[in-house]
Write a structure and sequence with these properties.
five-stranded antiparallel beta sheet; binds heme C; four-stranded antiparallel beta sheet; Neuraminidase; 2 domains; mainly beta; Cytochrome Bc1 Complex, Chain D, domain 2
Length: about 475
């Protein structure tokens, strides 16, 4: 009886798939017209099995699912779609399957209540609200005296002293607060006690394009705070004039300092093909000295027409950048499109592939490329499909959470999750969601007290909080 059903629907499918799928068709529509009749409108299963659970007939890997769709599982009644659907459309279906099953899975995770304990695999955790502010807290970091600096994207830098008194720093640079732009990262110099430098990144309006619309760039500066005032500012990086064209998003931008080197990220600024173009700052991770000079051993320093500051390229929108506390490796999280968020180990001169390779698809469900891997391009160490919207991250370097020492904590915006990654031999061996639902988590940092601080934000109310996680003894 079952077989007859399958055969009947194969005939139906054969009819519907004779119409060629256009290259830009959205994955929801492709799924509805080709797959829903057997696997159910919500992928929940009908006459064919659910695509949401982890009970696979194949080994369940991306490759196995791709092959099943392309070549069919003919003896089981799964038709082959390799003739009707292009490779990139089949890739969007795999992303769609991952997305839908992930959403069903993680919907079960309970959101903890602030100030109430909750359990994770390795620690019981308590939360405490440190402060609440209106607007988006984009970044935070501690000064050696235990006070905290944080940025509000609208263009404000704040100082919170250890007693809880807040001061808004005066005379910080004017920012272009549009789209994803504004005042972004803040990082005190590791030698702050000696030199007092604080580094800031922000989006800066630089003029208008031919269509008379505002354009801008990501600017990198450093300065000092004296008597509650931003002073002695030095500009460390501004992209060359001819490259100024930002559409208002994907500015990056995070810092990391290793010795005398300052690394910073610059998103593709909404021009994805720029990520492969060495003449522009967009879609790159850059390396300069802390005072803005450019190291002569940068990979493209001597290459004609290339930006001398580029350290790596093919980086879509890196929203996290951190130096490993003992190995000094540079790690970065990169915001993918719909699917294909990445964790990358950043090495000199490497091409990370965007937009030639990605595990994701366009936001509207249309394909970008069938390629998740190509020669000469670096695969991520770890990738999230669906995208969690990876943001800021940090290694835990405190003493309070004994079982978390050295783990990497990664914030997620869209999924409102905090991930704990354990890394061994440059591989992620554990990816635990330790917290979900409190808010969009944009930055994570270890406090001098050994607590783990996160920033959370609620889009609707436009409120942000800084929350401290402590270990329950
Ligand atoms: C005629 C019915 C039918 C249609 C249409 C169909 N499938 Fe299937 N599919 C099956 C059957 C039957 C299986 C084998 C598993 C089972 O017994 O349900 C299967 C298996 C699969 C598997 C492998 C699952 C595993 O357990 O490893 C994937 C992936 C899959 N289908 C995706 C799709 C996608 C995507 C589409 C649309 C492009 C689609 N299928 C359309 C019937 C169908």
């Amino acid at each position: 009886m079952k077989t007859i059903n399958y055969l009947a629907s194969i005939l139906v499918v054969a009819n519907t798939t004779t119409a060629a799928v256009s290259a830009n068709e959205k994955v929801e529509d492709v799924y509805k017209s080709n797959c829903a009749s057997c696997h159910g409108a919500q992928l929940q299963g009908a006459m064919a099995s659910s695509l949401l659970d982890a009970n696979w007939i194949t080994d369940g890997s991306d490759d196995a699912l791709t092959n099943a769709i392309k070549s069919g599982l003919v003896d089981r009644g799964m038709p082959a779609f390799g003739h009707a659907l292009s490779e990139e459309t089949i890739r969007t279906l795999v992303v769609y399957i991952r997305e839908t099953s992930y959403n069903a899975d993680t919907a079960k995770i309970q959101t903890p209540t602030l100030s109430k304990q909750f359990k994770t695999a390795l620690h019981d955790v308590n939360t405490r609200e440190v402060l609440s502010a209106s607007g988006i807290i984009w970044a935070m970091d501690f000064l050696p005296d235990g006070s905290l600096l944080y940025t509000l994207r609208e263009g404000e830098l704040w100082h919170l002293n250890p007693k809880g008194k807040r001061t808004k720093i005066k005379e910080t640079p004017e920012v272009w607060h549009r789209g994803q732009g504004g005042l972004l990262d803040v990082l005190p110099d590791p030698d702050y006690l000696k030199n007092g430098w604080i580094y800031l990144s922000y989006s800066k309006k630089t003029g208008k394009n031919e269509a008379n619309r505002d354009i801008g760039i990501t600017a990198i500066v450093r300065g000092k705070i004296k008597n509650g005032q931003w002073t002695e500012q030095q500009t460390l990086f501004e992209a060359p004039k001819q490259t100024h064209k930002n559409r208002g998003w994907h500015f990056g931008s995070r810092f990391a300092i290793d010795g005398n080197y300052l690394y910073f990220t610059n998103g593709d600024e909404g021009h994805q093909d720029d990520a492969q173009n060495l003449k522009t700052q967009n879609g790159k991770i850059h390396r300069i000295y802390k005072d803005g000079r450019i190291p002569k051993d940068n990979p493209f320093y001597n290459q004609k027409d290339s930006l001398k500051t580029i350290w790596t390229y093919g980086n879509r929108n890196p929203q996290g950048l951190v130096i490993h506390p003992t190995t000094n490796q540079v790690w970065s999280t990169e915001h993918g499109p719909r699917g294909g968020d990445e964790l990358n180990l950043i090495n000199k001169g490497v091409n990370y592939g965007w937009p030639k390779v990605t595990f994701g698809m366009n936001y509207d469900g249309s394909p970008i490329t069938p390629h998740t891997d190509l020669p000469g391009m670096q695969l991520p160490v770890h990738q999230w499909t669906p995208s969690i919207a990876v943001a800021g991250m940090n290694f835990y370097t405190g003493k309070q959470f004994k079982n978390w020492e050295g783990d990497l904590f990664v914030g997620s915006l869209a999924k409102k999750q905090l991930h704990r990654l354990r890394i061994k031999n440059n591989r992620v061996v554990d990816d635990e969601i330790i917290l979900k639902g409190l808010g969009r988590i944009r930055d994570v940092v270890t406090a001098p007290t050994g607590e783990l601080y996160i920033t959370i934000n609620d889009r609707k109310s436009n409120q942000s909080k800084i929350v401290a996680l402590s270990a329950v003894k």
